[in-house]
Structures are given as C-alpha cells and as structure tokens.
Specification:
Elements lengths: L9 E7 L7 H12 L5 E6 L3 H6 L5 E2 L5 H8 L18 H10 L2 E8 L1 H17 L4 E6 L15 H21 L3 E6 L6 H4 L14 E3 L7 H15 L2 E6 L10 H5 L17 H13 L10 E5 L12 H19 L4 E11 L2 E8 L1 H4 L11 E2 L3 E2 L1 H11 L11
Parallel strand pairs: 1-2, 1-4, 4-5, 5-10, 6-8, 6-9, 7-8
Antiparallel strand pairs: 2-3, 10-11, 12-13
Helix pairs in contact: 1-3, 1-11
C-alpha cells in the first residue's frame, strides 16, 4: 500500500479501559488485524493497564509479530488481555504520557472502552495538538451498560444481556420449584438496558421476571411493596429484576446511600461490589409482607455483580461486532482519520443489519445514553419494542419447558 503523504510513520498502540467484557479482546484483535499491512505502522504495541500504564511507564507489550493462532485464542478469551484501568488522565499526566508515546515512536493511539475512555482519547488528542507531537486517536466502543451516545448498542452489551437472560431463566425455574420472593440486582448505574434484558427470560404468562425496576424510573418503596404483593397473589411467587442504580424521586441512588465504602476514579460508589441494596429490599419485604399466620415470606436476594461482564459464553453477534469495530478503527486510521469514535448504527431489525460509522469524540465523550421512553412500560416493566431491539443481540437462548401441573 502506498503511504499517503499526510500520514505519519511510526508505531500504533492499543489500550483497554473500564470494565472487562466477554468480547473486548475481539476488538483488540480486530485492531491488530486491521493494521496488518498498513505501511506507516512499523510496530504495534499494547498498553499494560491502559493509560495508567503509560503514566507509570510500565513496559509495553509488543504485538507486532503475534500469530493468527494466538490472536484467535486471545479473541475467544474473556476479560481484558492487556489489563484494564479506570484512570482518567489530567493535565499533569500529559507530559508522562507523551514521554511514553515518544519513546516508542507512537503515532496511532487506539483505546477500547466506554464514555470515559472516549474522553481519554479526546484529552490525548488535544494534548497532542498543543504539544505539536502528532498522534491520531481513535476510540473503539465497549460497555456492558450499553450507554454510549451515538450507538444503537455497544460491544459487550449483547453478551452480558445473554448472561442476564439465561441467569433469570434458570433462577425463575428454581423460584418456581420452591416458591418465594427472589430479588436479583443487575448492573447499570444510570442506564437500565442490562436489567431490562432480563425480560428475555420470559416465555409464558407466569414466567419471571414478574417485576423489572430501572434507574430511569423513580423507585418508590411503598409502590414496590404493593407490586410484590400483587405479583405473589397472581403467580404464587415473585421474581424481581432490580437495577443497581435505582433512584428515589429526588434522583439519589438508593444503593449509594447504603454504601460508605469504595469509590471509583470518577467518584462513583462501587455498587456492583456490594450486596447492600438486595439485602435492604429483602429485609423490607420480610418486614412489610406477612402470611395469614403472621410469618414473613421466604425472600432471597442475589447481586449478579461482575459475573455479568466476562462469562465465557458470549453472544455470537456480539463477538463478531466487537471484532468488526476494531477492524473499522484501523481502516479509518489508514484513510487519515486523526480523531474520532467508531459507532454502531442499526439499519433494520428484520433482517437484523447494522453499519459502522465514525462520529466525533465530543459527541460520545463523558456522555451517557439511557433507556428511551418507548422501551419503558410503566414503573415496573419494559415494552415489546425493547424486546424486539434486544433479542437479535443475544443469540439463541435455551428453549425451556414446564410441566402443566
């Protein structure tokens, strides 16, 4: 391939950031594949633990000569192969980052992650403009929360949604065998997409989840108790999906109020590391609901936590799309893109088709997409429109059967 005069020659570097997923390594391999044969790139490096590794001057991983067999094994492995980070560079970090980039002659910077990761790309590109050291910065989308603006959906979400749907399927059958009240707390601080994916577990009228609570809808304690009583009266039991990020009418996270522990680099309470919300809701129901004999109901709560992110049975659709956005990022670098983010746009549902587009970093960086109103049904359910949206992303699900008892 001829080298366009406008493209700098040097090395490319790839980093992974934020929460690991089942398919983030597909994107890593996609970028590497896309860069093969790109003449301006003489070396391909991996950052150890994202920009945090650059700031700490950790040794880079040379990915230049990695074999096709090694890439396929990496691609099929969940979690971040290079190590991840939640660090967000500041102005003070700039000199150390650019010292590391210059030392490796890096001119192409690829960062795989969510909205904070796209903001990191923006920060590094703007620093490169001010310092005069040319670095092309391209963001590759990833987040199980599915909350990136400009994207119909994001790599990582489909596989996590598949896990949630299957977990609720199995848990519902458990709950039907020994009827009671079961609460499952699902990831999602501000966006309820992953909690909503639990709806795919339903196949019959009495299948759970019977109630779904999203962070987009204010959570009312009294209404919650009444909902559970009604579901138990109808089904003889109740399975509940609750987002970890549910908020009260003032917009305050209920889980965060119960936690006085760790916060992440962005000042957020680490909701997925605590079972406090599930325990609180469980104790509330035991206190407020009584059987005719006066005994509290059988109530259990689980926090699905990190298991949702890296379960080693990804959605085939998700894996293919994660690989494709990595390839697209590399291809755009070849055409001279200096800064931008790769986004997924849905063209149709029947048949399911997407296209990959380039959007501005400023349209994605540090912004959050939430569930649109057309996906939300009242205060404790989702719509058919959401089911139609989500179903193509998770792949085929088990076909379970219940005896007509």
């Amino acid at each position: 391939m001829a080298i366009p005069r406008s493209l700098p020659q040097g090395a490319a570097i790839i980093g992974q950031s934020g929460g690991p997923t089942a398919v983030i390594n597909q994107s890593l391999v996609g970028v590497i594949e896309g860069l093969k044969g790109f003449a301006p790139v003489k070396k391909i490096y991996g950052m150890r633990h994202g920009v945090d590794g650059l700031i700490r001057h950790l040794p880079l991983v040379d990915l230049t000569a990695i074999t096709s067999e090694q890439m396929e094994r990496i691609a099929r492995t969940p979690s971040a192969a290079l190590g991840s980070s939640r660090a967000k560079p500041t102005e003070a970090d700039g000199p150390r980052i650019f010292d590391a980039l210059k030392a490796a002659d890096v001119r192409y910077f690829f960062y795989i992650g969510g909205n904070d990761s796209s903001d990191t790309c923006r920060i590094i590109y703007e620093l490169s403009q001010r310092t005069g050291y040319e670095v092309h910065c391209i963001h590759v989308p990833k987040t199980v929360d599915n909350d990136l603006m400009m994207n119909d959906h994001t790599p990582g979400f489909g596989s996590a949604a598949r896990f949630v749907a299957m977990a609720f399927m199995a848990d519902d059958k458990d709950n039907a065998s020994l009827p009671g009240i079961k609460i499952n707390v699902v990831m999602g601080r501000n966006a309820g997409f992953l909690t909503a994916a639990s709806v795919l577990a339903r196949s019959g009228e009495h299948d759970g989840p019977h109630l779904i609570y999203l962070p987009e809808v204010p959570f009312d304690i009294d209404r919650f108790v009444a909902d559970v009583k009604e579901a138990v009266a109808k089904h003889g039991r109740c399975q509940i999906a609750v987002s970890e990020g549910i908020k009260d009418k003032e917009g305050v996270e209920i889980g965060a109020k119960l936690i006085s522990g760790d916060k992440d680099a962005h000042g957020n309470a680490q909701l997925s590391g605590s079972g406090a919300l599930g325990d609180m809701l469980s104790n509330l129901l035991k206190d407020r609901i009584k059987s005719p004999s006066g005994k509290p109901p059988r109530v259990r709560a689980d926090t699905l936590g990190y298991l949702q992110r890296c379960w080693p049975e990804p959605s085939p659709v998700d894996a293919a799309e994660a690989r494709a956005v990595g390839v697209k990022a590399a291809q755009e670098a070849m055409t001279g893109l200096t800064d931008g983010s790769i986004a997924i746009a849905r063209i149709s549902n029947h048949p399911y088709r997407i296209e990959k587009r380039v959007v501005r970093l400023s349209d994605v960086a540090a912004k959050t997409k939430v569930m649109p109103p057309e996906f939300i049904n009242g205060h404790n359910n989702v719509t058919k429109a959401f089911i139609d949206y989500c179903r193509p992303l998770v792949g085929d699900l088990p076909n379970m059967y219940r005896l007509p008892l």
